[in-house]
């Protein structure tokens, strides 16, 4: 709004406002407005952008009034009539109002308040300038509201003045003066502008006439140019029209019209074009004279455009002429071609008619020879006609060419061509018809001839097929078959020929229309006879082939069986051989041969069986010789079977022999290999160095690998020996060979292992020695270098040496590892190698000794180097600190001229803003140097004086700096206090502005991390605000004291600043709360979004899991599914809490009115709905799974019970109880079996009950459950029946014996139990006690079982006593057992009590020891002094300590419970006290460690922040130190802008540095153990920040210098480009084509020269001035600037020289072309006069005299040409001297032509004058003669007269 207001009031364009509603955007827009006001020299006192944005009403109104005063009122001035005194602003406006309202009744303007209340003054001003708008008579002073309303409405409606006031604003007791001034100023500006417009109108009128005239000329030029261009374009279109006449006469007419255009129409337009150029020159000349902008025709109507159009016209004209000439030639050629066509067409028509008559005749003959002769004649005719086709085509080609060329009489041509083509086609048709007839005759004769030939051939074949020779053997039959095949092939081939002849005859045999060369009946008879004979021949051929095939089969069978029989006889002889080979090779060869024989045998089996099958087939067919065939078949089959048996026997013998030979060969190979390997393994060679030993070890590894690889070969030999047949297995070369091989192999394995160890020891020894030698060599080199090393004095040399030492350390570390490796190898060798122990020890000790000496030497040299470096760094820091303090001293001294008033104090504040912080950093630096000097002096006594001297010099400079500062503070006096206040106020306001900017941020976080970060930053701002509260209150108190009683403007402004400070402080609090509320809501919303995404993911997972569940078919699967679902539902319940929390959070957000309430509510509803559905689905699925689990459990129980019953049924059915042996054991087992049945009866009952409940609860499962229960009950009943039967039979077998055995067994068991109970062992520790307790429990269980057994025995004894009276002994035994069993109960209970007491005691001791051990394990963590080296490690340690504290908190109830445990136990007091003390100490140490870690965390956080600050400043320093230079002005401007942004960021970063300083001061004040390091670190940061600011200022200056350089470069380049463009014109070689052209060029170039000189000189002077300014300012690129300047001046001088040269050339060209023009003009005039010279001389004296007078006049006329001729001759003589060559000859030619014409004219004139004189003399003479004759006649008449004298 402020920017728009300024644009409206000032009428200037301001920068575009920054879009955005954030505070920073508002501040930036206000800064733009304030900057514009400063540029307009508007003084703004104490108004800042933050005051306007923060809504300071007073300052805002003051700013608005200042703007109005500057742009609306300040420029008002009125001159009085009397003294010409000028008044300004308010007084001038008041005077203007008084002048305008003077004379109006009741209007008295003497101020800007009450004088305007009645509204008459406003109306009077309007009436003064526009009396038509206001009726002053109708206005009354008493009606002020109406007057004001009327004036305001009139001003707004008629004058367009904004209604700034309302009547209620003015019609008050004391109207606002500024408002009325503002409104009245709008009247002033409006009416002043109206007056100015009237004056300007009069002035403008004087210019309009000239402008109108020029405009008319311009319109005329535009019209003429448009018309000319239109004519040119239209003419070009006409000339480009290629629709030429298609006849010779038409083209000739068009060519005549074109010549008329060139001679009649074009010349006037050419004159019009020249007139246009003259008109344009006139227009431009007048506009320059009137100081108007020179008219330049718009694009398309320039002279150059007209010239280009004219060139295109001439080009089109040339092309038109060429087209017409070409078309004329073409038409002439077409006429000649048409004549040739007519001549050829007539010749072709005659020839075609004659040949048609020849072809129409048929005379073919009646035999073959005559027809062939007719064919040859016809072919000759065809050849002639075909040869003639080219001539006919030539006629068509000529016609086509005429048609292609669009001949005008093409219709006639095409008609005649078509006639020729028609005649040609008809001739060809006649020829083709005659050829068809002739061919029919020829085919008929051929067909008849073929019929005769075929009949003869068939007779011959019939005789051959009737032969009775069918062969005497196989080859004879095959030969006959081949001959018969050829005959059949001939017959088949002739079949095609017969069919062809028949087909050919059909066309002659069929009756019908058409040409027939003979009668069809004759042809049909001949064809029928031929076909009958052919069929007979085919039948004879088939019969003969069948007989031949039958003969071949018979002889083929005997042939095949004979061959097979011969082969079998040969193979039987071979298979009977006893040769099985002499060795493995021959045996394998025989085997391969036998395998080949087997293959051959298999291959021959098939053909043999086929031959035999054919023989049996012949027998079955009843062949005449079937008996011979059958005998042959049986004989061959028997021989084939015998051959197979021989082959099998032969193969067995060969394989046995091959196995023996194979075994012998492999055994021999293994023996040979064992010899070689044993020889290698027994070698004493161990190598003479590391390389040779390593090679031997590698070879030995290969030998070992070979030994291991031969183990399978020996095992294979055993297998081969076992597979040999008994005859071969007992052979001497087999039985005793394998044990010897085994012994040799074992010997070889042991020898290779021994040699491997020897080689390994030797290799280790050589390796150790080589490593020791290498290490010794390196140590020797480095020792030599260290002994020769001298510590240099210069810092650069020290740094080089230090760098070499830094490279030495990794080498030493590497060597240390190598030395350690040598020691390890030596230890290993000493343990294994007994031969070289002394050498090994000596090598190791020597190497270790050298290594220790070298390390000591290196440490000594490094310590000396470090000391020297410390001294040099000390001196370097002393120099830097001294320079730093001297710079600050100069800064303090530069403020001597400031501080005399408040403005000076404010300037001093800006000058010394960072001085105190710099002094604190300097003081810390001096302190550090003092400590460093003391340390170095103690370490280096020999250099102590120099060190202390440097320290004294630094302290002296420091004291001087402090004294200078104190003197400055003393000299300022009270101003010092005011300076401090202003500095604090400025710093606080800067902080307040930055904080408000930060708090006013409208950034809305888009993620949870961003929300947390913004909220954390906001909380840190709150802490910072609280921290600055004391500064605000102290600043406010000092401000009240400073401004108390002060009324000057500066102190009033200071008071306003304090009020703005109060407003800003309060506004900051409100803004923080609002921002905190917004961020809290955003954080809660982002947290809600995160939780909602997680919850929705969980719900989606739940939905997927619930929708993809199936019912398992096994109990384990059902249990797993139920458990899985229950676990899943447990997780659902856990996630349900998250859902409820999410819902509660969402509803809270909705209730708080969050910006995203709709989205939150939608998400809450969706989550609640999905969660409810998931819970319902889970409950439903759980019900189904549980039902399935119950069913599967029931079925599983049923299955188990069924298996158990079946198992027990097998036991119950065992009937081996008929002997008394082990009867008691069997009875006991049966009793246990019965007891087991009784105990498991509840299993069945339970299943029945569960089944009924399951069927009742789940009716759909009733059928399955009922069926299963029925099966189980049936099985159980059967088992019980079987068990009772077995018990009865067992008991009845031998009751007394059974009872006695049972009692004896019980007595034995009771004796063992009593022995256990008498034991005094109650356990020595917790483990043994637990073991005894387990035994006790097992004993008690056995007692319970035995008690049931005793009861069973008692029942048996009672039953036995009832049946047998002699069973008293058995009853006594039973009672004794019962008494012993009852006496066992009390000892059992007593032992159990004692065991439990022992367990409690041992358990307590175990717990106590465990807790003490646990505390001891945690104690090292609590008392650790490791506080971390960096921030991550400290944070990790804090997390570990927090974990420890949580463990202590969680373990405390356990310890308290243990310490509070009481009872009858004898507690170990010392161990309890030890646990209590250790526990308390552990808690205390954990808390102390927490405190130490917190301090360490604060320090490390500070170091990390300081490192980040240094890193940031380091990056900025790199930017500041960058040597990058811009390439052009835009990039230079961009770099300056970028640097300004960096400087602003650097100024903003002061807050971060200040925060670091506050943190360090707080930690130092709190007594942090690293206070010294913290102070030093902060000093480094402050120093780096100060140096960075200095770098920024230097770089800004350099960038601005470079920007000015780039601006100069831009100007130089632009000017050089302009000069180069001008040089193009100036260097043009265009000197004109004729006199008019060169005149135009000369005039234009004169104008170009004037413009270039004036504009160019001004621009060159400007650039030279800028360059001189840069050089004078000492720019770093002075040489480059001077070079640019010199280059520019040289280019300018060259341009001026070119302009001068071209002016001279144009002048010379002008003289030359003027000479040519004058010469041509003079020559034309002379020739014209020559033509005017008449030939006649008069018919008489009068006409001759008239002719003479006319010639005299003519001579006077040509006498006037003599001056022109002389001028031409003089110009030619002058120009001949200036030119040479062709131009000189041309000049002479022109001069000679004029001279010759002039001489000829003069000669002609003189000759005519003489002729006329002669003629006049002649006519005078004749007249005198005639007169004399007349006189003589008269005299004669008088003499001859009759009259006589009187």
Give structural attributes.
2 strands; 1846 residues; 0% strand; 83% helix; two-stranded antiparallel sheet; mainly alpha; 47 helices
User: What would you call the quaternary organization?
Assistant: single chain
Helix content: over 70%
Question: Largest sheet, described in full?
Answer: 2 strands, antiparallel
Q: Biggest sheet, strands in spatial order?
A: 1-2
Q: In words, what does this structure look like?
A:
The chain is an all-alpha fold. It contains 47 helices and two strands. It has a two-stranded antiparallel sheet. Helix 11 runs antiparallel to helix 12 and helix 37 packs antiparallel against helix 39.
Compact summary:
With 1846 residues, the protein is mostly helical.
Topology record:
Blueprint: H1 2-10, H2 23-39, H3 49-53, H4 57-73, E1 77-79, E2 86-88, H5 89-101, H6 120-129, H7 144-157, H8 167-170, H9 177-239, H10 248-289, H11 303-359, H12 368-404, H13 410-465, H14 474-509, H15 520-575, H16 584-620, H17 626-681, H18 690-709, H19 711-723, H20 726-729, H21 732-735, H22 737-788, H23 795-832, H24 837-893, H25 902-911, H26 915-939, H27 944-972, H28 974-999, H29 1008-1027, H30 1029-1043, H31 1049-1107, H32 1115-1151, H33 1157-1212, H34 1223-1257, H35 1262-1293, H36 1295-1317, H37 1326-1363, H38 1368-1382, H39 1385-1422, H40 1431-1459, H41 1469-1520, H42 1529-1565, H43 1571-1626, H44 1635-1672, H45 1678-1732, H46 1741-1778, H47 1782-1840
Antiparallel strand pairs: 1-2
Helix pairs in contact: 4-9, 5-9, 6-7, 9-10, 9-11, 10-11, 11-12, 11-13, 12-13, 13-14, 13-15, 14-15, 15-16, 15-17, 16-17, 17-19, 17-22, 18-22, 19-22, 22-23, 22-24, 23-24, 24-26, 24-27, 25-28, 26-27, 26-43, 27-28, 28-30, 28-31, 29-31, 30-31, 31-32, 31-33, 32-33, 33-34, 33-35, 34-35, 34-36, 36-37, ...
